[in-house]
Design brief:
Elements (H helix, E strand, L loop, with lengths): L4 H13 L1 H16 L5 H19 L12 H16 L4 H22 L4 H41 L4 E4 L2 E7 L4 H18 L3 E8 L5 H16 L3 E5 L3 H10 L7 E3 L2 H24 L1
Parallel strand pairs: 2-3, 3-4, 4-5
Antiparallel strand pairs: 1-2
Helix pairs in contact: 1-3, 2-3, 2-5, 3-4, 4-6, 5-6, 7-8
């Protein structure tokens, strides 16, 4: 709902003629709602920015938050939402900072006792509601973006690729291996193989609670991708229950080396690297 040019003019006049009173009362209400989680100076700065933007757009005539003249006001509201989301405030606490303006306007209109006070309050309330909804939506978008970023960071942290020694890297997997995580595992392993030039990689699934057809396919694709990069993979952590499940599902790992524990996989790689080292030494002697 947009304010008419006449209503916008009256709003601008009301706000400018009681500027200090508006910002002070508005700040007090917001301060009480946030219970001291932000400093008085910071809250006052935010309120003053909102106040100045609202006055500026009101003085331009017919006021609608969706129009181009209200771009600065939308930007201030979006910045408020973004900061509050990053500071850990709730959507309600953020929206209340805008809705508090209703109480301020009601006090001013009640004190003036003009013939248009009731009609103006209804119109002004509709505008404040529009501002509050915009703030809420901006807050939700920012919070969703933060959650997505945190989920991606957790996903990367949950799939570390560790260089054990020269020529050998390991990927200790813990938890469920879904498609998204399997893709991250593959990408990080391949990149590490490129960076280190390692010919061997150990994929340890000791921490994977269950292996089904989908998980097995993810592991096999990772092994095939690593082979295309010139690296051999050893799968460790094949517990008895997992071995039985793999047999029951008819999954075949073919010529892929599998070991019951990470220690067995390490001993296997040591033998392989030891054989290669001895061959290189023999060639040098010859």
């Amino acid at each position: 709902m947009a304010l008419s040019a006449e209503e916008s003019s009256r709003l601008a006049g009301l706000l400018t003629s009681h500027g200090d009173q508006v910002t002070q009362r508005w700040t007090e209400i917001v301060t009480n709602s946030l219970r001291g989680r932000l400093s008085q100076a910071e809250l006052r700065r935010q309120v003053q920015e909102l106040y100045r933007s609202l006055v500026a757009v009101s003085e331009q005539g017919a006021l609608d938050l969706e129009t181009e003249p209200a771009a600065e006001l939308r930007a201030v509201l979006a910045e408020l939402s973004h900061n509050r989301a990053r500071q850990g405030f709730s959507a309600t606490e953020t929206a209340v900072s805008v809705f508090a303006l209703k109480e301020v306007l009601l006090d001013l209109l009640d004190a003036e006792r003009s013939g248009t006070a009731l009609r103006d309050f209804v119109a002004f309330s509709a505008l404040v509601d529009q501002m509050g909804l915009f703030t809420f939506e901006s807050f939700v978008r920012t919070r969703e973006s933060l959650i997505a970023d945190q989920a991606e960071q957790l996903l990367e942290l949950s799939t570390p690729v560790v260089k054990l020694w020269e020529g050998v890297v390991a990927v200790p997997l813990v938890g469920t291996l879904d498609s998204a995580r399997a893709q991250v595992v593959m990408e990080r392993l391949l990149q590490t193989l490129v960076d280190t030039g390692s010919p061997y990689a150990i994929i340890d699934i000791t921490g994977v609670p269950a292996v089904d057809t989908q998980v097995a396919q993810h592991i096999l694709k990772t092994v095939v991708a690593a082979r295309l990069m010139g690296a051999d993979c050893i799968i460790s952590g094949i517990r008895p229950q997992i071995a039985q499940t793999i047999v029951a599902l008819g999954i075949e790992f073919g010529d892929i080396a599998t070991k019951a524990s990470l220690a067995d996989a390490l001993r296997h790689v040591l033998r392989l690297t030891g054989v290669e080292a001895s061959r290189r030494a023999t060639r040098r002697e010859i």
